DNA sequence: GAGTTTGAAACT
DNA sequence: CAGTTTCAAACTC
């Protein structure tokens, strides 16, 4: 199947490209110079019905990582080369059509199919670019599904800049009609990729709501994509790059947006999730992406065969992948804007997309094919939650060499903790102090993911210099402080649509008073939030992980005053931020309460799942600069570590339920003088509220046993008194959480004692490398849970909560060393089932015996010597004696019981009984006939 | 709520 | 690795 899909994908891609070529030819004939820029945008539909929030399984790619091998990439390259030849050929429509006809037959793709739409800006003067497989990775998942609908979207690409070197290109861009006819291919474009200068690729992956919403539903709003050729990528990756894109597509259902960019060095950087429902603005200041060269974008929305049971309201995940290959002549400072026209320009499906060059003079002089860079799709990895976006970003940008990464399918595992993979790009590891991560994540998952990624990368040729380390590896990330202006709105659309708002008027909670707040309404967990702002570009990425396994990437759109904020406007500050992800074993509620009183540093708290999240940062944080900030894991907490250092914590630790957040706000209001306690709690599937105890201002919180609004039992606050909450005695610490709202004394399990905490973590890990891993794991057999270490109970009989096994509601296993254990698995259930089965079988046998007996009785009655005829021939009804009737009724009853036993429906039972009755009648008649026959001679 | 019990974690 | 101590949660009153 995988191979089949792969072939289908290739074929689809081929067809699509040919079709696109044909359309481009038709649209731009005469105006488009040979080798002119070409832009194609494709959006793919992904049925949300199959992909519920958090249901990553739907996103699971059936094909292995080796599905798209280098040879297949070669094929793609060849296809591209063919297209190039076609470009240079006049009057190829017929051929193209033939190609389309031939290649488009019965193309079936998975329900979750991703195709890459390529915006290619071919180089006019630099045609010597080698044709290499660029970012085109149709990602096909699940079973093959025939595409029924294909909605086309128009993408308008315009270069407002009068300085555009090639007027023809402008003209071409103005001509935005790409009305490629119906396609029978379902593509799920999960990424929008713009490649500039032959080496820069921006991938914007934006799942959108249902296709209806995308194509016809008014809910789909035009989106702006401002591609900033700026230095965002480069800054993030620590390498020079000319590409910067901030996109904010919105996903209504399975919100996973992946925005990646490939720097000039060929590094792939995930920039931000795209929200198709929301304006996406990218500003290319460096001009590396020249939209002038982009002739068109052909958005394609594919609708899978899955019956559209829902209206627009039903969410269909639509991924838009746009690959923009622009020929840039090295001119910088040309803003490029890719925006969907809000005017509602409809293109076949009515999804308008505009690509507007921001007046830069840069020209895209790079042929799409010419780019040596190859396929890039790590979206699935993220979507599956296997590869945290943060990690992805870290990995991709880190490799200095041009890299092609294909991550078709990583390990699909329930993603309890968003960040399960610790990847350390060598280049990104800078001088920031090493942080020991408790990272009590599922080691298996992590390892698999890492391996998968590594293998995937390696399969492409090992061009990626990515260092993937298993969990517990220290992760160093330097994030430079940028400017996050108040009034910035980070818009993310998850299933509920989330908005991180940094109102300009919003009061800063921090002591500095300039700290903006990021409010993240909605109950989703943000896997990470990346705030990237630089002179060149700003990228804010919010990755949200829903409660479900699905890893959701929420696009964050920096908007000022409701309008897109020019990312370039943000200034860059060179404060380094240390990211210290502490991955809990599970998506436990994490709460981080930064106490910033008197501290010069700032902290940013981004609750993972809190409906309302506040991100508070010190005055310095307000200027959190994206330049160096690649990503901030959701619920990331940035705390000052030194004058310019910040420690960023994963979102899990800072999630907060909305009500709690509100309560905290109220408390904070009441305690304005304190201004130190900010609580962001995050709820998780299995854990409660994280708690951080502050000796100074911590409000005394008693044991909270009440359930959260979502029904999740909040985590109990600890009561540590002597351990400083830096020993595994402390549950908070053991769970990799910060203490918050605890009753502990002299707590060091907080941000203020990060060094001590890290030291303690290190110590614990030295004693037990698995100290922070979940104690309860799955047994060898099946999904049976078992205590990894086992209990050692002596007196409790393992029937009290002293016993960890009993507390976890799992029977003791062989790992346990308990004495007098009574916490044994009851096998009565199985016996009961067996007994029931046996009883049922016996019953059936009994019923069968009864039926046979009755039948025999009937036979006996039938062949009983007839009574002396009393004036007339014995008719069949004469056999309807009381005995026969009784026997018949018994047969019918037996049949009814049988039907009941089989749990048959009423209709079936009736049918059985009637049939039985029919057989009885037949028997009676036959008996009568035989009796008649026998009596005839007589 | 105080005191006791219990077992894991830490220590020797 | 085993024994002891420490610790905090669970439990009892």
Automatic annotation (TrEMBL):
Would the keyword Protein biosynthesis be found if you checked this record's keyword annotation?
no
Pfam families for this protein: TCR
Q: Which GO terms describe its cellular component?
A: nucleus
Task: Say which domain of life the source belongs to.
Answer: Eukaryota
Q: Which GO terms describe its biological process?
A: regulation of DNA-templated transcription
- Annotated region (Disordered) at 664-708
Q: Which SMART domains match?
A: CXC
Q: Does the keyword Zinc-finger apply?
A: no
Which residues fall in a compositionally biased region of kind Low complexity? 664-676
Tell where it localizes: Nucleus
Major localization listed first in the record, in broad terms: nucleus
Query: Keywords of this protein's UniProt record, alphabetized?
Result: Nucleus
Q: Where is the composition biased (Polar residues)?
A: 677-708
| Positions in coiled-coil regions | none
Q: Where is the CRC domain?
A: 714-826
Under the heading PANTHER family, the entry gives: PROTEIN LIN-54 HOMOLOG, TESMIN/TSO1-RELATED
Family assignment from sequence similarity: Belongs to the lin-54 family.
This one is known as: CRC domain-containing protein
Record organism: Coptotermes formosanus
